[in-house]
Amino acid sequence: MGNGRLARRPWGSCARAGLAVALACALVGAGEGHTAAIASVAEQRQEVEQRRERVSDEIQQHRNELHSTESRLQDHLDELDDIEQRLEVTVADVQRLDRRVARLDEELAQLEDELATAEEELATAQQRLAATTSELVATQEKLAQTRRQLARQRETFAERSRASYVHGGSAAMVTQLLDVGDVSEFARSMRYVESVLAEDRQRVQRISGLAREVEATKQDLAQLQQRRIAQRTHAKSQRDEVARLVEEQRQLRAEVAAQRKERRQVMLALQADRDSHEQLVANLRQASQQIEAELAALAQREERLTAREQQLAQRQAERERRASQDSGGSQDLGGSQGSGGGSAAPASDGRFQQPSQGRITSSFGYRTHPIHGTRRLHAGVDLAAGYGAPNYAAADGVVVSAGWRGGYGRTVVVSHGGGLSTLYAHQSRLAVSSGQQVTGGQVVGYEGASGAVTGPHLHFEVRVNGRPRNPVPYLR
Questions:
Q1: Is 336 helix (H, G, I), strand (E, B) or coil?
Q2: In this structure, are 257 and 145 located in the same domain?
Q3: What's the number of domains the chain is made of?
Q4: pLDDT tens by residue, 402-434
Q5: Least confident span in 115-119, 237-241, 327-331
Q6: Which of these, 324, 291, 297, lies nearest to 63 by C-alpha position?
Q7: For residue range 154-194, what is the model confidence (pLDDT) as tens digits?
Q8: Cα(354)–Cα(471) distance, rounded to whole angstroms?
Q9: Quick check: 448 and 409 in contact, CB under 8 A?
Q10: Cβ atoms within 10 A of the Cβ of 249, count?
Q11: Where are the alpha helices (DSSP H) in 330-382?
């Protein structure tokens, strides 16, 4: 019996040794399987990580391109605002010059009417002067004839008077007449002599009176001629003065018309410049929207790759944990050692800091716009802390836009990665610039009332891939 027991011991030892060898081989095979699986997952994870990094690089390139595009867009918008202001002033100048030219045309037409009237009055004065001068010349000729006639008549009367005196006067004439034999003849002679002398005397008196009348007429005509000359001189002076005013008005009108032409040319140039900038702005906005769409697509792709990377990391960690457990459980039997495992980094909770110390005065959601009066989505929340109060970045990120943004007024947009961005609008002034890195809590600007607002406040938005989200759940 003792030999039998001794004979069975070697078999039991061999059985136990074989079992140990079999278990060791099984464990070695399992370890090799875990190692291969872990290596495969690691390779997949590395490939996904490389793809994600390439997408991240592409996102950064798109962000830089978006920043450049929005910077150029803002430059063109600023230039467009300047052009609009200059165009407004120029249009006002052209309209003012149009009105002035119209007034000058009216005044010129009135002056030309006055000039025509003055020309007529001058022509009338010249005609009157010519008529008076002709009448005066005729009167002077008549006066000369009357004076010659008066001189001849006086000479005749004087000769007869001298003859009467030479023959002894009236007594001698009477004596001569007494020598006439016939009494009737004597009477006839006496009557004849008396008639001749009386007629001579009357003729002299009549001609003298006529001479006085003609002299008076000549003096009247001479005075009238002087008045006519004065009237013509005055009419000519008036005509010359009105003609001078007409010429000055024409020159002034030409100068103003030249100014209007120059301002119209400036206006047309500004309008063409405005149209060009508006086209550039439209193109840049379209390019910006396209880049934003590409960024949104890349952000979604990055999120999918990040999620895939996290899944692979968890799978790798799980397999490393199992390999470590299998390796630890076999140490007593085979003494093999397992490889150490890693763990995935915890995901961020995604919460934002408060962008303002003010209270919410208007919530996210549809409402009636306080200015336009239409019902539309209020894509953020309004916080009021008082004019000039600081506004803070809600989290770390890159400023992708800083400047005037239409109805938003002075606005800052910060990209936080992963398609997540925040917007800070209606600020009185900005404290950051486009392309700048910011940290959570850093001042990005100060509360104001720029843009389409009714009072000072901060309009704060949260956007995911360009779509607005209610900011309240994101805030601490």
A1: coil
A2: yes
A3: 3
A4: 999 888 999 999 999 888 999 999 999 999 999
A5: 327-331
A6: 291
A7: 787 777 767 655 554 455 555 555 555 555 665 565 566 66
A8: 10
A9: yes
A10: 18
A11: none
Q: How far apart are CA 177 and CA 196, in angstroms?
A: 15
285: number of Cβ within 10 Å: 15
CA distance 20 to 33: 20
264-268, 278-282, 339-343, 462-466: the lowest-pLDDT one: 339-343
Residue 427 forms beta bridges with which residues?
410, 447
- Specify whether 69 is located in the same domain as 144: no
Which residues are 81's β-sheet partners? Answer: none
Taking residues 331-338, what's their average pLDDT?
37
Q: What is 15-82 written as a DSSP string?
A: HHHHHHHHHHHHHHHHHHHHHHHHHHHHHHHHHHHHHHHHHHHHHHHHHHHHHHHHHHHHHHHHHHHH
Chain-centroid distance of CA 122 in Å reads 53
Number of Cβ within a 10 Å radius of residue 242? 19
End-to-end CA distance of the chain: 85
Eight-state DSSP code of residue 352:
B
CA 472 to chain centre: 41
Cα angle for residues 380, 386, 392 (degrees, 5° grid): 55
In a shared domain, residues 51 and 107:
no
> Residue 465: what are its φ and ψ, rounded to 5°?
55, 35
- Which residues touch 159 (CB under 8 Å, ≥6 apart)? none
Question: Side-chain half-sphere of 353: how many Cα atoms within 13 Å?
Answer: 16
Q: Which domain holds residue 424?
A: 359-474
Residue at 282 is within a domain: no
Q: Which two tokens stand for residue 25?
A: 């081989």
Residue 340 lies in a domain: no
What tokens does 399 get? Answer: 């400023």
Asked, for residue 342, whether it belongs to a domain, the answer is no
Check: CB of residue 413 under 8 Å from CB of residue 401. Answer: yes
Rounded to the nearest integer, the mean pLDDT of the chain is 79
Q: Are residues 177 and 221 in the same domain?
A: yes
For residue 146, being part of any structural domain is answered with yes
For residue 194, what is the domain's CATH number? 1.10.287
Do 382 and 471 touch, CB atoms closer than 8 A?
no
Tell me the pTM.
Answer: 0.44
The token pair at 353 is 């800091």
**By C-alpha distance, which of 407, 438, 408 is closest to 421?**
438
Q: What share of the chain is helix, strand, coil (3-state, %, to 5)?
A: 70, 15, 15
pLDDT reported for residue 121: 87
